[in-house]
Amino acid sequence: MAPGAKLKVGQKLNEGKTKQIFELLDQPGLVLVQSKDQITAGNAVRKDQMEGKAAIANKTTSCVFQLLQESGIKTAFVKQHSDTAFIASHCEMIPIEWVCRRVATGSFLKRNPGVKEGYRFSPLKMEMFFKDDANNDPQWSEEQLLEAKFCLAGLTIGQCEVDIMNRSTVAIFEILEKAWATQNCTLVDMKIEFGVNVKTQEIVLADVIDNDSWRLWPAGDRSQQKDKQVYRDLKEVTPEAMQMVKKNFEWVSERVKLLLEPQASSRVVVLMGSTSDMAHCEKIRKACTSYGIPCVLRVTSAHKGPDETLRIKAEYEGDGIPTVFVAVAGRSNGLGPVMSGNTAYPVINCPPLTPDWGSQDVWSSLRMPSGLGCSTILSPEASAQFAAQIFGLSDHLVWCKLRASMLNTWVSLKLADKKLQACSL
């Protein structure tokens, strides 16, 4: 469906301070999230209209969810529908705000006297708050959440689910923190919510993440803050003050688009000694693609044509694109050592070992003369991952995919253990 296409909108399912949720009659399992031109603070003790806020918030949250989804984080977001609305999977919301903090400020200082503003949390500080406007969203412990025994969309929230939300919150924060760092902005803290997808019973990141959801300090300087705290801090709400708040929100919505852009180019060049190694090399290329890294396959033999091998090397050194070479050579590996001795670029040996001679052949990749620094990784997928880790040092989009992959691996193990325990009972 094209953006902005006509939808069959059903009844209103829910309404919050800044958005409305509608069912979609022609798309079961999906909802329309419509933003409002309203800004609030202190559980709506302060409440004002801000013309254009719905479009600004929708643009911000759509970009943020796009970044997270492209990284590999499971979210309820489907796509942006219009300037002020997006389509999402229908979820039953878990009534907990997960707050993740890198820098001590705001309410944390009031609840923890003696901690100075600016104290840096490493690891991140995690807190949770029960969504209860009447009682000002009280802070909850993990034990309170477990004892609540929430059951949503058929899923009971137990230890496994709490651990997944906790771990996911940290990963989501770190991904957004890494992305905002490319714009010289410090992500100070952030609040997010999770829901249970009514179709899949999966816990996914839901609700919205916009300029109401975090504190952002350009250059790490609180006096330059661009988030909703500026509105909270207003002594008097005037048209001039609201215009300043709106400009800050617009600044964030424009910058957030830049988070989707790569900060550096990169490339993996796989050199194989023979086309008989093609299947092995295709696994490397497939894994590189999953990290968003271009991968080129070439055939050359350092034993039979060393001049051609070095010519190919020079071809990729000459265009200025950061490159990792992966040498795929069975039997006696000459490719890796020759490449490593003649380039300052990283070289990874990934020999396609065979059952008969593999234990002998591998030594030509492990025992290097002095002055050579090529690594050896036997798994084609792992060699691509190592290349991604190198590029992730300068490209936040690659790093974000790696971080999300770590989370998803952890979650799959957690769910597998839960399933096994259930079968054992």
UniProtKB/TrEMBL annotation:
SMART domains: AIRC. Residues 266-413 form the PurE domain. It comes from the Eukaryota. One of its GO terms (cellular component) is cytosol. Homooctamer. In the C-terminal section; belongs to the AIR carboxylase family. Class II subfamily. In the N-terminal section; belongs to the SAICAR synthetase family. This is PurE domain-containing protein.
